Recover the amino acids of this structure.
């Protein structure tokens, strides 16, 4: 593995990992399980004095008994054992310890707070960096680092910095069907040593990271964070979800990661000045990641909307407009072109285009939908096309029949998407996942078709409208364009 | 079937239904298919001169050839044939025609607009009422009326009035896994004859309807609507989603149902004065339906929040507070009680209660979660308990093993919900559906467990926070309580 020069890069490329206090349960050790599944590209060592082997690996009584070099240690042993682990790591020349262990400063108990401070102090003396405590650590698919099994093996270009481990784990799983893949995910918990500024600075310089997403509960050093964030946001898009915007939320950040949440207003102003995008939920963090990955920039506010269903069209127009975008009537010649092949009853060619061709059977359906998309995209007053639908309209009981409408729709949408690979304007999809397992499976399949073709998919029009409006603001600011049209 | 006295009730209790222009395709006729599946409690007749039988039913050349009485006619024949159908209905003594047929006034073409007006005029002369045109008509599970197969057969107490057929159909399907069931659903399209005020007035008087939900694009007679809405909202909760709040949305209502959308401000003020609740999306319409059905009223703004995961807890506290609710610290004695059985590491007993007992295996997990819920509910400064989780934390590959964490969680949640049947304060669940088919199936199962026990389930904390805040405002206004605590 090529190691680039910048300061923290060695943390993400360990030659070997030792799991200290590896579980001897029948279920196996979660970390070893994850590392072997990826698989991790270096040596994996199990350490536990109570066993000779764990999951088929030789098990060492202590770190010091391992003969080869150990760069990275993961451990979930109880807090009181940590000082001994740090000493062992020092003796062994370990570079980084990831403390999954919780029950330290975040408990609010003076003794545990002192223990955490002492661990950091001693580690610094020994030249060891600490990730955590109270976190899940690193997920780096390109080198096979992971903390739990079942995560995607495919690397990507998103760097995620998360003060919450569960939020990070859930984000990886939840955003995968929308096509997000990661260069580095860092769950860093209490940030006793390495903190948000360290990881932000690293991601800004990391050539494998193109988009930076972050969930942050507290900032250790405001002045440094401001500088690092400003530099990072000048280089790459940075999107931040701040936990603890309210008094109750701030109380929770203290008991979660011992973080002082600080003022929501100050944090908001800081993000704005630095050029970072602030979002309000994990779902918005995902949407913004998808938008930046697959749309990159939005040329203007004017949507050409295509869907099936009059009520859907009305609500889509409302949502987009209320989010600050526009849904202008299509020019007469485009409407005429659409009228040439759109049935007259129960449709509209104005914008939104409400068309029943989505539900047609056979090959023709996809072709007509592709022609619809092409015609809408050709309108000079359209900056991007939004295709919005749910894969479950029509009779639901005849699922094994060839004329089952959702199957037609799936085929029509797939064909249309394939035909639109060379579209000159961004094509965006909002695909409401409806509430049957069948429709849900079809939705997952179609989402993959979209992101494999670099098309952004959002869970519904509300999500799309919110994030596209944010993307437009970001685009305008980034390229210093006029607010357009 | 008992027919009560109020004016339009006969429309919802036809003795017989004739499908005019029933489809002779191999696939069968959509309406007949739906009516037989429910099944409809009266006679079903097929009318089409091109066939002798349809789906095993004798098929009559015209309505006049049917010997028994025909109360209700459904038809999707082309617009130009409709005048003849109206004449036949007059001759046969039909009471109501549901015109699925579209391509009338909503096309904006003068000739089609005139045709619609002429149909209404002639029908009134003949004493026939019209539902539509350009709509899906009636779904009344208690008598077996339906427009498409696959809809729930179980009746309920929600009346839905929708100017969009697709929105109505989707709403029934999408809200079913959250426990909404219907007394009457009315898709009424162009409202050429019977309109929103007629159906609202009916639902207000209908003893089978306890909650009224509506999707409305335009109001035919503002003065009457104001009166009817005020009277309805004085009797039952009325929740309205207005389509066409924006200029682009209003353009879409015109091409969808020939509706003049009117001013968003005027409509908003009208709802507020009448005591109706206005919502911003179909999802919010569902959430408010669920809240009114299963929570009914909220005693105050103070949430006791229980979840697993520190980041989730932080964000839940933020969401609830930002929506205008409160997450107060639990009293010392309740925190002590929780500390008695909550592990110290990685948890919090303050509020939100972040507890790992959700992930414990065995019977104990549910018991401990139930004790947690009971303790939180016992706090005098808690008005309701919000349990929030997603059924997919933890290792995801060992799904066939007895120690698979999502299975534990499912069992723990189920046990806890069962133990909490007698809780003195509202218990509300926010269950994020994560993105695997397994987790989704588990979510559907658990949602059913909840609503079968009259517990409200929402798709995530954001949804719950938004709707609970609205429910509180509604409760306060309805009961003229002080804004509390």
């Amino acid at each position: 593995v090529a190691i680039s020069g910048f300061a923290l890069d060695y943390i993400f490329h360990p030659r070997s990992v030792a799991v200290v206090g590896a579980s001897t349960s029948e279920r196996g050790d979660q970390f070893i399980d994850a590392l072997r599944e990826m698989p991790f590209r270096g040596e994996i060592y199990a350490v536990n004095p109570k066993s000779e082997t764990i999951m088929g690996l030789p098990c060492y009584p202590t770190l010091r008994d391992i003969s080869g070099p150990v760069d990275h240690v993961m451990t979930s042993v109880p807090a009181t054992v940590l000082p001994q682990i740090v000493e062992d790591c020092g003796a062994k020349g370990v570079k980084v310890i990831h403390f999954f262990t919780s029950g330290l400063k975040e408990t609010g108990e003076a003794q545990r707070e002192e223990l955490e401070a002492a661990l950091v102090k001693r580690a610094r003396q020994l030249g060891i960096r600490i990730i955590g405590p109270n976190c899940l650590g690193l997920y780096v698919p390109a080198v096979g680092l992971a903390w739990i099994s079942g995560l995607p093996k495919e690397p990507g270009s998103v760097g995620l910095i998360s003060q919450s481990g569960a939020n990070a784990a859930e984000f990886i799983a939840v955003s995968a069907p929308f096509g997000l893949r990661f260069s580095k995910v860092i769950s860093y918990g209490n940030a006793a040593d390495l903190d948000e500024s360290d990881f932000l600075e690293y991601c800004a310089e990391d050539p494998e990271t193109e988009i930076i997403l972050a969930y942050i509960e507290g900032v250790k050093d405001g002045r440094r964070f401001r500088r690092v964030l400003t530099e990072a946001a000048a280089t790459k898009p940075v999107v931040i979800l701040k936990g603890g915007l309210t008094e109750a939320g701030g109380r929770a950040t203290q008991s979660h990661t011992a973080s002082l949440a600080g003022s929501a207003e100050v944090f908001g102003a800081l993000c704005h000045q630095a050029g970072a995008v602030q979002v309000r939920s994990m779902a918005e963090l995902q949407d913004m990641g998808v938008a930046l990955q697959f749309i990159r920039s939005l040329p203007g506010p004017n949507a050409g909307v295509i869907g099936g269903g009059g009520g859907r069209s009305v609500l889509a127009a409302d949502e987009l407009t209320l989010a600050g975008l526009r849904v202008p009537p299509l020019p007469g010649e485009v409407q005429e072109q659409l009228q040439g092949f759109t049935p007259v009853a129960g449709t509209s060619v104005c914008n939104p285009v409400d068309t029943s061709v989505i539900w047609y059977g056979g090959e023709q359906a996809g072709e007509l939908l592709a022609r619809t998309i092409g015609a809408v995209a050709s309108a000079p007053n359209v900056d991007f096309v939004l295709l919005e639908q749910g894969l479950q309209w029509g009779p639901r009981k005849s699922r094994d029949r060839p004329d089952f409408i959702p199957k037609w729709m799936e085929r029509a949408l797939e064909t249309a998407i394939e035909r639109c690979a060379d579209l000159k304007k961004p094509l965006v999809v909002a695909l409401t996942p409806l509430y049957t397992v069948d429709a849900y499976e079809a939705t997952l399949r179609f989402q993959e078709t979209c992101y494999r073709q670099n098309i952004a998919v959002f869970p519904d029009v509300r999500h799309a409208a919110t994030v596209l409006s944010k993307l437009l603001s970001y685009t305008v600011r980034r390229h210093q364009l006029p607010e357009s049209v």
Chain B has 15 helices and 18 strands. The longest strand of chain B covers residues 155-162. Residues 1-5, 394-399 of chain B have pLDDT under 50 and may be disordered. The CA atoms of residues 359 and 409 of chain B lie 5 Å apart.
